[in-house]
Amino acid sequence: MATERIDLPQGTLDLLILRTLALAPQHGWGVSERIQQISSDVLQVQQGSLYPALHRLERRGWIKARWGISENSRRAKYYELTRAGRKQLETEAGAWRKLSAAVAQVLDMA
Amino acid sequence: MTPSVQTRLDRVWRRVVFRWRRTQLNRELAEEIESHRLLKEAENSRAGLSPQAARELSNRQMGNIEMAKEDCRDMWSFLRVERLVHDLRFAARLFGRNPGFTVIAVLSLAIGIGGNAAMFTLVDKLLVRPLPYFEPDRLVRVTGIYPRAAVPFFQQQSRTMDVAAVSAGSEYNLTGQGEAVRIFGAAASANLFSVLGAPVAQGRAFEPGEDSPGRDSVIIISDALWKNKFGCDPSILGRVITVNGMNRQIVGIMPPGFGFPSSKVEAWLPLRLDPSNFIEYWGSGWVPFVSRIRLGANVQQAQAEIRALVAQFKRTFPYPMARDWNANATAIPLQEDLMGDIRGTLLILFSSVGMVLLIACTNVASLLLSRATTRRKEIALRVALGAGRLRIVRQLLTESVLLALIGGGLGILLGMSALSIFKSVLPSSTPGLAAAAIDWRVAGTIAALALLTGLAFGIAPALSASQIDLAGSIRTGSQRSITSAWTRLRSCLITAEVALTVVLVVSAGLLMRSLYTLSEVRLGFRPEQILTVRISPNQSSCTERAACIALYGRILDSARGIAGVDEAAIANTLPLDAEQPYLAVEIEGHPKSADYPAPLLWSGAVSPGYVRMMGIPLLAGREFTEADGSKSAGVLLITPSTARIFWPGENPIGKHIKRAGEAQWRTVVGVVGDVRQYSLAKGRPDWVPGAMYMPYVQSAREDGQIYAAMTLLVKGRADSGRLGHEIRSLAEEQDPNVPVSQVQPLEDVVSGSISDFRSTIRVFLSFAGAAILLAAIGIYGLVSYWVTQRTFEIGVRVAMGATRQRIVSIVLAQGLRVAVYGAGAGIVAALAVTRFLGSLLYGVTATDPVTFVAVTALVLAVTVTATAFPAWRAARIDPVTWLRVD
Amino acid sequence: MGKRPTPSELLPGTLDLLILRTLAPGPMHGYGIAHRLQQVSDDVLQVGESSLYPALQRLLLNGWVKAEWGASENNRRARYYTLTAAGRKQLVSEREEFTRMIGAIQKVLDTA
Lengths: 110, 886, 112
What we know:
CATH architecture of chain A: Orthogonal Bundle
Number of domains of chain A: 1
Distance between the termini of chain B: 57 Å
Order of helices and strands of chain A: EHEHEHEEH
Largest interface: A-C, 36 and 35 residues
Structural class of chain A: alpha+beta
Radius of gyration of chain A: 15 Å
Largest sheet of chain A: 3 strands, antiparallel
Mean pLDDT of chain A: 81
Oligomer: heterotrimer
């Protein structure tokens, strides 16, 4: 069971995408790779939910996209955080921390 | 977190329990939630709110409690199952409210599916199933017929095959066991059963050598004969019965269902191989071969060997044979050979049925498409009420699948009756025909097919219907925007239907014309009021020529004495009969040579008065008389075509012909009209150049014996049932051991010869009829729908002054457009396809213009009829009413 | 994101886990569970009643809790829920799972 992967719901996915893009602009595939990598393969991002999430975030103005050249010299769409996006990330990350703390508290209560 | 199987089962069980206690759980939940709320209310009061405010707040705090209750209730039922049940009930109600649509759709499907079920069964059971013998793919039929002398020759010389021989079969007299009966028996070489790999059910097969004289007084009977004639007598083995005057011991019984070479065979006698009986060994009693390819050899080697052996064997013939006798003899896999003649018919039937199915499915698809668009309002409403798109698609699919399943179920029933109709079209001696019935495999395939068709033509309309523009549909009643693509599709479907129908109807028309031409064929004789009876004494009782002649003389006298009988005569065979007597003859002025061996003539042996009784015209010379006795000079009658072939331009009277091997020449004394002896389509097979008649008392078969079995013909105004009775009793009077069989009016023999063909036509006609009906329904549906769609437009036109005629002609034009395109495509297709009818056509070409034109006219007429009602409806549109309602 | 996300939105299945944990010490009725969750989490976790009861039904269906009628504080009838043995096992495994996931997400959020 330790090797089971977990699928991410929409809200959490948005948060993780924003966080990943906060480090550096990336294309879609790179984002999902990174998340998977850092979480030691525990978190799995489905292609079917990644791109809708990216479009959603773009529509809300939290990320923006531009065309660039990828590692294997092909054209790819790169995403990066906007200023509004950075603010949103902070808010959401904060809310997340509070929530997970609260849950942890319940779980640990005597 | 994936639950184990045990957990899943437990969960299902708990759901069942919850479902059962649903009402109670509902109550308890309400109570529980209310109790919770009260606690909240109390808390709010303690916080200082007034009782009123506390209550209000607590209500708000509980949130969307109704939805919560809904979610809870979901746990207490089998959602999917209940949804399905609900969908099914809804679908059933829907069908009930639209009986016209339902009936048409179900019937169309049933007809198409039923026909195909029957055809699959036949193709599967007859063409595809292997023969029920051991390793049947090693069995081959060696083509050509061989004299008995060839049997041991081939058996000894062949290195690639084990060769057996068995005759097609003929009738034998079975006497000494109660009433004398005729049985159908085949003469077989001793190794037949081992070559086939067909074991006996009881007793034993022939032993090697039992096909030689002295050891061949044995017989093996079929299971059917054992049941019918001997009543399943368990002590039957070893009993001696008399067959054609010869005692034979029953040594074996074959298992039920065994019928080689055909299912008509009731007994197998050893094929007597007697080199000392020259006539039989070399001249008469030719048999076909069936062989099993030995291990280590293959068909190609066998084929090469056959050619070599035939050449070798020809050199051993004691008399000259045609140079090319059996020159292209070869080996065909037995399966192919047995099924060869019906393969063509089956394939034609198969493609016709397939076409009808296509037409039916097209109709149903078209119907469903139209319904999907007319139900847009209903669907829009349901979307507004919160049904998801998936839900709607599921609902619509349930409807179409249910429809398909009902149609499929009905189709299987129809298929069973269709099967018996098809069976009547094929020759009854086809192996396995009687046993062919729709079994579980076919029924299962049909069910799956029905399911697939339901999904296939349900999915497109379902998807389209679920994609509606909500506001737009509810607001405006007319739905024209998105449906045009579907309407075009429908038109294409109906056009294709019409094309297929044209192909079918043209084929049926061509066949009908063939049938008509055939039945109008000049027989050459007049069969009216003639009753025929087959009389078959044993050959042994006619070795004495005088005895036989005397017997028939007495029979004729007694027959003439029956009240109501005007004339009586005997003949060795009837026209159009299966028995075709050919004799090798020598013709004066045409000496035999290697290239021109003794020709075969069809030879009739008749009593004087036969020619007159049958109404055969006498064209020259004279008929037989009583003066042409057994001691008088031999005389003959021939036909004009025979005279033309052998003595062109000369007077044939006075010429001489004799039987091959006879000492004395016989003289031609008269010429009588040609008669269709062989079949209605052909007077004679191509390799028989002519026909002749001998007086019965002077007649001889190839072995010199007189004909023993003859057909008695009586002409009179008496009732045929009574006549048959009287004849039977007078025959018994003469000799109780002489079976009388096949009492039938000559007219029946004539119509019987085309009965198979007639049945085929009937089947085709029903296909064509079904196709026309379906196409008419399709056109009607299309045009009717078109009128409904255009109601607004038509109302406007009428309001602006268009006359009724104009409206009607517009509607008609819609229908005719589809019909014309369809007919055009259909004609092109038919021109390409009808050539495959080939051998079934008689007197009419595959591209006969009259038929094509007539069919086109028919299709157009049907179109006009189908369009009539919608056109009438359109003409009655009252602009005031319709413009307002929309 | 205007309103505060509930734990079920961010991590589905959290509610089930929380309920199971709350019932671990002993039986409780619906109101009590909601109250307790609020208390221990300093009001962060506001479990709506509309999500609580369906969740309880789900737990019942899976056989992780069982329910019995009893008397509540205000002397009305109330249903008390207790963890079953299977429920206890489920609590342990879900908790492990949850911890793992939290850890993973946290790692991503914490990358410099």
